[in-house]
Amino acid sequence: xxxxxxxxxxxxxxxxxxxxxxxxxxxxxxxxxxxxxxxxxxxxxxxxxxxxxxxxxxxxxxxxxxxxxxxxxxxxxxxxxxxxxxxxxxxxxxxxxxxxxxx
Length: 103
Description:
Blueprint lengths: L13 E4 L29 H5 L4 E8 L5 E7 L5 H14 L9
Antiparallel strand pairs: 1-3, 2-3
């Protein structure tokens, strides 16, 4: 089995979408009518960083036109957890999304 390669982030975290599709109903492993069978088919940006032991964090960054949440994922070099959390804090302060009121 081939070892996954790390993404070299350097001094700045790399940004990716959290997932490439809008949110779907709770309780389903895959979105309906998409031809997918397992979760890893709709989550290609998240699990590779677990395999390479790189810290990653997802932040809400907006909403679709249907009102579903959109996330951005930041990834840092291995052992750069503090750097990643600082970047997340900075980005979170700059995101100006409209969030629905929760009851």
